Amino acid sequence: MSVEVITQDGVAEVASLLIPLNDKQLILPNVTVAEIIPYREPTAISEDEGWLLGQLEWRNVYVPVISYELLNGSESSSREGARLAVINGTGVNRDLPFYAILIQGIPKLTHVKEDDIVVVEAMHSGPYDEMAVSVNGEQAMIPNLNAIERELLKYIG
Fold it and tell me: Alpha-carbon torsion 33, 34, 40, 45, what sign?
């Protein structure tokens, strides 16, 4: 997957999404997110891991659904008003072309230049948080998608 870089007056920008969760927000390149869909209750596939909410059919493909907060050791997020962000797999494993993350609300499109990102100290950083940043004054977490996929593959692959 390649990240689309837009140049504005010779300055590179990456179209990104600020994705709201219960207690924080994630930031991902726009091309990482295949689609935002209304929340549907997934079919259970593991009783052992609470963060693995199940799977659902999306565009004729079965997609595992996770709670990023539970995976990362935080509290469960509400299903009321929730949506799902269908994430494009990194391509590391063909068995996981997509997965979905439970989100709260509607993501916000933002164009990010390198100078817009400031690394900050995270108060509640979890094992699947790559880095805490401030982007144009908004706090966000860059998730470690490779680690998330490796963990998912232990249960579905």
Answer: negative
The CA distance from 69 to 81, in Å, is 16
Dump the DSSP string for 111-139: EEEGGGEEE---SS--TTEEEEEEETTEE
Contact 103, 84 (CB under 8 A): yes
CB atoms within 10 A of CB 109: 10
Residue 42 CB neighbours (<10 A): 20
Per-residue pLDDT tens for 130-142?
A: 999 999 889 999 9
pTM reported for the whole predicted model = 0.88
- Count how many domains the chain has: 1
Q: What is the pLDDT of residues 78-126, one digit of tens each?
A: 778 899 999 999 888 888 999 999 999 999 999 988 888 888 886 678 8
Give the range of the structural domain holding residue 127, as residue numbers without chain letter.
5-156
What's the CATH number where 73 sits?
A: 2.40.50.180
Helix (H, G, I), strand (E, B) or coil at 21: coil
Alpha-carbon distance 48 to 30, whole Å?
A: 32
Cα–Cα distance measured from residue 22 to residue 68, given in angstroms and rounded to the nearest whole number: 10
